[in-house]
């Protein structure tokens, strides 16, 4: 029999698991050409050519034993140094390999950092809507995730609600910028306000509150919007980064944590992260992918592709009568469900061949997430179905 804890996680993740099987089922019933799958955030842009070329070069030219060996828990020192230097160029920092821990994507990085920071019963705060996997990541480390109610319609963090939610047990706050599922980008002003609240509360409770910034979508921004570099605003920030979206490598499981020397108990946290990688069973981030991203970390994905998808879909949805804010980053649109029950709305959309994710999976009922990281034909093919869906609700 599986554990009670696991049963809770299985039930909670049913919506996401269902997306994989549901797409398949709908294709069988409606035919491939009539199904428009906006369920999962799997990039439809290929990885830059240089990524595959670099992998081939490494495999052809480096000693095979060296490529495939276990690495340090924190990653290969030269790789960590290369990432640190890239960040120094981009953000005018002075990082060294000591500040970087290579991880199995952002998911691996978040599990690692929660393992390092949390004692049983410690609280981690986040702002709804939020990436639903955070519940499990925090629970894996014995913590409790507390979601602050959504700030509708801006979906920005609400500093006052944050202030009210912090207790002496608050060990960390996790934010995701640019945001999945809303596509909202938090600007420097709002980050400053959040930082101010954290500093006030650290003083009040005599605690350290870490700000964990989950940034797999950092480079996916539109209209010249800037994503603030949060360690510049709040010393106690740890950044979880991933190449899953920025280089379209979600299956390769590669990313890193940036742990600035300014965070509380820096030495322990940085060293602990390498140990956590090992004891959580990742052992180390995939060695070949570490070597690849050390050389390709400054490569860019085709943001214009996502931007065009965004424009086509957003403009059409507005015309059909859907309510949604224009996303500034990531590759998601968060639309208001056309009836109170978002799951019923999602089910209605399925009748028209459209697969979306219910907002309740992100702690925000009454909305639906559309992952528009799909082929252009999927967007264009889906538009008549979206129009029919709106008409079914009298729009
Ligand atoms: N955080 C957010 C907000 C995400 O959207 C995702 C993946 O979709 C992850 C973390 C995990 O990404 P990774 O593939 O880097 O583990």
Which structural class best describes the helix and strand composition? alpha/beta
Average pLDDT, rounded to a whole number, is: 95
What is the 3D form?
globular
Helices and strands, in N-to-C order? Answer: HHEHHHEHEHEHEHEEEHHHEHEEEH
What is the tally of helical segments? 14
**What is the β-strand count?**
12
Can you tell me the residue ranges where pLDDT is under 50 for at least 5 consecutive residues? Answer: none
Report Rg: 21 Å
Which bin fits the share of residues in helices? 40-55%
* Spatial sequence of strands, sheet with the most strands: 2-8-7-6-5-3-4
- What would CATH call the homologous superfamily of the largest domain? Type I PLP-dependent aspartate aminotransferase-like (Major domain)
CATH level 1 class label of the largest domain:
Alpha Beta
Strand content: 5-15%
Which small-molecule ligands are present, each listed once? pyridoxal-5'-phosphate
Number of domains: 2
CA distance, first residue to last residue: 49 Å
Q: What's the CATH architecture of the largest domain? A: 3-Layer(aba) Sandwich
Per the CATH scheme, the topology name of the largest domain is: Aspartate Aminotransferase, domain 2
| Main sheet properties | 7 strands, mixed
